[in-house]
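User: I'm writing a short methods note and want a consistent example. For BAG family molecular chaperone regulator 3, I'll paste the sequence; you return only the structure tokens, no commentary, since I'll be parsing the reply automatically.
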Amino acid sequence: MSENSTTTPSNDEMAEIEWEMRPGGMLVQKRIGASDVSTPNLRLRIAFGAVRIEISVNSQATFGEVKKVLTVETGLQPGEQRLIFRGKERENGEYLDMCGVKDRSKVILMEDPVSIEKRSIEMRRNARIQTALRAISDIALELDKLVDQVSVIEKSFSSGVKVSEVQITTLIEMLMRHAIKLDNIPAEGDATAQKNLQGKRVRKCVETLDVLKLSNAGLKPVVVTTKWETFDPPPNTAHWENFD
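Assistant:
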């Protein structure tokens, strides 16, 4: 049987072991001449790396049922476990007593390599998310101060008090610098929602200041236009080269 297989026996072992399907769908080793006499529990010594665990299970339990017990002890799900007895990985449906497991027998527990890699990837992902959340939180604290300043300017305008255009422009520049910082934060998971939230705060403040800036400019006596192409040339200046 392949060492990586945990559910389907090989053709050679099918000839050695008879299997049957339980009502729940689990393929288990078929018992021959099972008795009605109550069966004793076995104490199994589980070696999991440097950790030693002792559990008690029924002698006629399957290795799959042992994995369920070990889930409570180790936190590993049955699909993440590999049980080795007498140098051989055991199938979920194999019975302990029919494989020669006795009281105080030693069983080696190994974590499936695929689950190790998945957990490593998840840990790295969580670390990235936490780093992003801390960076976003720092920006949010700075934005709180800028938002307060925008509110003060809004109240001044509402009261008819003119605000320096330099003050408004400076605030917009500070907000845009924070927007750039947010864009440079690689976010995923929960950090994405927080990043978007702070981005909306920046946009709202900038839009508010843009409106106030236009209102502030409207109070000035000089009208400024950017459509220079609409200006007519001054009269009597078409032939400057004729002047001595």
